[in-house]
Every structure is written in structure tokens, then in C-alpha cells.
Design a protein that fits this description.
The chain is an alpha/beta fold. Helices cover 40% and strands 13% of the residues.
Length: 316
């Protein structure tokens, strides 16, 4: 039986992966700050007690533990580097000393590009612009500079914005706008951006673990088709049985309001405005070609509808 160790298993992606891989017949052990145990977890370890010997019998490490990007910009840079870089080094060093075959590191597209002018591919130069992205960049460089030998594989996965049932964030904010009948005031911003359904993410991880012939490397993770924010609003309205309301307010006025939000810590700030209105298209051609898949299992629209439907269920 294939056996994996997931770090950060209590987060959104980690909890989904634990359930998914268990259902696929894969033994799942977890490594977190505190012990977690249920019928789907084979073994539970904490960081304080973890030793390289605990990796005995493990086929793959899925390193998810990290500090997420803080859109309110209240976190100091040191926290990102301590966790996203330092912790990754610790786990990877244990991997190198062990008999574990695969190391799957969840990085981010932000490790290489805070903004994207055209389409983001894996061979782009590092241009991380935030402490979050820079901490992921440093972690990637450390991993890539180590000699792992011919019997091990290193996968560096760069997901874009992940969504799925139970996940909150900017999509939930848009959902609340539509549900309350509030017109979306950012329709004047024309954009196209990639999303990643957690269903597609989990499928790819399973393929990497179970297919020993897949070469290691850096892979972007994204759904097949990008969507504009106006299209997302339309999908939300359709799923919620609401009328689509799009307002084309002058974009310059909106940017001024966002700067005021920075000062007053309002829901709409410059970082959130950027996330809602920027174009950020990520190519998933490499992972699809490597896995010999014309398309990923879940379409952009279908995955987004599932996420929005979960918001509706949470509010009933």
C-alpha cells in the first residue's frame, strides 16, 4: 500500500487531501503542531517530536505546512521566512536522510510573479515581490540546489488561487455581495485570471504519487480555462438564483477608495482590489502534457459552481 505523510493536514488543502487519498486506498500520516487523529489517519506526529526515523515506510511527503499570504499586510516578513523557508528546509533535510521516494512541495505562483502580463509558464525568472512570495522563492531555490540522487523525485507545485467547498476568501466576499443584492462595483475592470479547483489539485497529487514514471520538476497548477471576475459574478448569481448586477464605476475612483481601505483596514484595500481585478493567467500545459491528459477532470465553471454551492449550504 502506498503511504504518504502530509504536513499541515489541518488546513483547507490538507484536510481535503487526507480524505481524498484515504478514499483512494492510500495510507495517510500527518505532521502538525498538535496531534490529530481519526479513522482516516494512519499516524499523527507533532513538530516537537518528529524524527527522521518516523518516515520509515513512507513513500511520499506532501509538504503543505506554511504561512498563507496575509491580504491585510499585518504580518512581519520574518514570519514568512521562518515558516515557508525554514520549515521547508527542515522537512526536506529529513527527506534526504530517509528512504522516502517523493517530496511534493506546495509553493505558489507568487514565488515567481506577483503580476502577470501575458501567461505564466514554469520557466519564468524569479520576480517575487512580497515577503510571502520571496519566502516561497527561497524555499524553491534551496530544494533545487540539493542533490537528491537518482532514486528520489522532487515535485515543486505552483498553484494559483485554490477554491473548493468550505474554502473562504475573495470568492466568499463576492458571494456575499451577490447574495445581498449589492451590485458589483468593479465591472469596469476587464481581466482574465486562472483559478484552481481543489478537485483538480487532489487528482494531480494522486497521479504524481501513484505514477512512478512521472519526472520530477516544477509544475504550475491551474484549471484549464481562465475566467474574468465579471464571469465569476455571473456564475455566482446563477448558482444563487440572483440577478446579475454589474456596475461600471470609474476605476480611478475605486482605486482611491481602496487606498482609504488600506489606512482604515476596510474589506476593500489595495491588495484585495488587485486580487479581484488583476489579470493573472497561469498555463497548466506542462502538467497536462506530462500526465498525458487533454483536460483536467473538473472544468473551471463546474469547480467554481461547486464552491459557490458550498457557500449557500453554509448559510442555510
Amino acid at each position: 500500500m502506498t503511504s504518504v505523510l502530509i504536513t499541515g493536514s489541518t488546513g483547507f488543502v490538507g484536510s481535503n487531501l487526507t480524505d481524498y487519498l484515504y478514499d483512494k486506498g492510500i495510507a495517510v500520516s500527518v505532521l502538525n503542531r498538535t496531534h490529530h487523529s481519526n479513522k482516516k489517519i494512519n499516524q499523527s506526529f507533532t513538530w516537537d517530536e518528529f524524527k527522521t526515523e518516523d518516515l520509515s515506510g513512507i513513500n511520499a511527503i506532501i509538504h503543505l505546512a506554511g504561512k498563507a499570504h496575509d491580504v491585510k499586510n499585518t504580518s512581519g516578513a520574518e514570519a514568512y521566512f521562518d515558516i515557508n523557508t525554514g520549515l521547508t528546509k527542515t522537512v526536506f533535510d529529513a527527506f534526504l536522510k530517509s528512504e522516502v521516494r517523493d517530496f511534493i512541495y506546495f509553493s505558489s505562483v507568487k514565488a515567481v510573479a506577483d503580476t502577470v502580463e501575458d501567461v505564466l509558464y514554469e520557466d519564468v525568472e524569479y520576480l517575487a515581490a512580497t515577503p510571502y512570495g520571496q519566502s516561497k522563492e527561497q524555499a524553491e531555490k534551496y530544494l533545487l540546489n540539493q542533490d537528491i540522487g537518482p532514486d528520489k523525485r522532487l515535485f515543486i507545485l505552483r498553484p494559483c488561487m485554490i477554491h473548493g467547498p468550505g474554502n473562504k476568501g475573495n470568492l466568499n466576499l463576492l458571494y456575499k455581495f451577490v447574495l445581498k443584492g449589492i451590485p458589483y462595483p468593479l465591472a469596469a475592470f476587464s481581466n482574465s485570471r486562472s483559478f484552481l479547483s481543489v478537485d483538480n489539485l487532489m487528482y494531480v497529487v494522486e497521479q504524481l504519487i501513484t505514477k512512478t514514471g512521472v519526472p520530477g520538476g516544477i509544475y504550475n497548477l491551474a484549471d484549464d480555462e481562465p475566467l474574468s471576475t465579471n464571469e465569476v459574478i455571473t456564475i455566482i448569481a446563477e448558482v444563487s438564483d440572483k440577478k446579475t448586477k454589474l456596475w461600471n464605476i470609474n476605476s480611478s475612483l475605486i482605486k482611491v477608495a481602496a487606498k482609504i481601505g488600506d489606512i482604515l483596514h476596510l474589506p476593500l484595500n489595495s491588495e484585495r482590489l488587485k486580487k479581484l481585478t488583476e489579470s493573472y493567467v497561469v498555463s497548466n500545459n506542462k502538467i497536462r502534457n506530462t500526465l498525458n491528459m487533454p483536460v483536467l477532470p473538473v472544468s473551471s465553471t463546474t469547480g467554481l459552481k461547486r464552491t459557490i454551492q458550498s457557500f449557500s449550504s453554509d448559510n442555510t
